[in-house]
Amino acid sequence: MLYAWIKAFHIIAVIAWMAGMLYLPRLFVYHCAAEKGSAQSETFKVMERRLLRAIINPAMIATWLLGLTLAWMGPDSRYGWFDSPWLQGKIVLVLALSALHGLFARWMKAFAADANQHSQKFYRIINEVPTLLMILIVILAVVKPL
Ligand code: HEM
Q: Which strand (E) or helix (H) includes residue 111?
């Protein structure tokens, strides 16, 4: 019963994290088109900072804490889920998603300092990466093909 509650909150945290990870690069795409110093550009800075600080960062921490708790509580009393290949593969992909999160934070800071180095096309391509990782992670967690 406790396990099911933790899983429910794990999924809620995942939804919040993913919502932010899919929306932030979209904001970067629009931000590229806004002139530096314009009112629009300043609005994007506030939206990006709030999205990262209020939603994406806490949701990532909650996803990790609840996911690791579930992993410890898994079916094997000694190893939990940790000796299952699906979880090992999932952790590698979630580490990649977390690294991308770190890059988003770096790019947000660059936009905040009017020092963005990347093109609109770059952010359009990057926008697809969290989607791809999410599809693979959910298949590993639900279907457990490994
Ligand atoms: C941060 C590291 C993570 C760990 C250690 C972790 C671990 C786990 C564990 C042990 C379960 C329980 C599986 C079961 O009871 O069958 C679970 C469920 C789940 N996780 Fe994660 N998870 C993490 C991150 C994520 C992420 C980033 C996503 C999605 C993008 C995700 C999506 C899911 C889903 C959809 C379930 C429900 C699976 C089911 O009940 O069939 N998890 N997770």
A: helix 85-112
